């Protein structure tokens, strides 16, 4: 399902598929002059004329190899669904049948919008901007197809804008943000959380242009909008405190910055502490008899965990950069603990253990062994070590079972040879 590069060999390339082996075919070159007027061949990413066609779904086009390569990871996952989605609805004399088919297509479109937006947002929070941009652009395209020019188009456009800011392409980011602002002017009753995301993007662009006062005002407005929807102590409000604190730090007001970083870390610790207690208090007991295992509880959305890691890492870094006041050791240790907790929740146990040990080292150096945070770090270190031990044990058991199966096969073959 991933089109191979132009100029490569024309034989099908075997690639791993879901459940079965698939072949990767080279793209089909189109002669645009030979197409009829009603054939739309627009690039999946930039909406320009596309001369390269996916050889699998045959309904996806690209203007150049670069855009094809950018979209290859996402397109591999959704190629088979795009093929179904972009087929024309079959004619039926029954109106009920036609309505049912239209409804099925809309449901599929909404699923594709949710999937591509989630992929874009998660990749952006993980710092994978080249992977996030195509997903965000495709998600915005599905949103326009479903709802037209409405508020649902804004979130994926903001993801793309933030990715371009982080890549240093401010002109492109400005273009995406301008489209968002146009939609905002035409939309009534926009949710405060979306307004907050818009202000975050405006602030990032101003910050990149070293317009610190404008950026500060945007981050303050972001906090206000998120407070309207989630409250002042919600994790989705915490990012604004962090960014606002960094602006005060750049303006040499480190006491105000310290209070905002402290507010950010407190919000995350108050959120992850109960979750960690609940996760570690549940015994790992195998299911007995006919009881069915309960569905695994979702403690926190993946994008929230990634956002938390990004925000807390910023706080940790900025706290260590304080120059006009004494280094706030306790705030640094608390940020380390919060990062370690999210690592544990994300099943990144070795990284969580490293963070816990770093915090323990800080406590030992600053004579904070009697502080409750030291006890929490010791507990986090123990939880991570326990999970690492279980993973290593299960891996060894799996390897030993593979070795036993190999020996059985070899013994059966030697026995067969002896019998012959």
From TrEMBL:
Residues 43-79 form the MYND-type domain. InterPro entries: TPR-like_helical_dom_sf, Zinc_finger_MYND_domain, Znf_MYND. The keyword Zinc applies. PROSITE patterns: ZF_MYND_1 (PS01360). One of its GO terms (molecular function) is zinc ion binding. It comes from the Eukaryota. Residues 1-20 are annotated as: Disordered. This is Zinc finger MYND domain-containing protein 12.
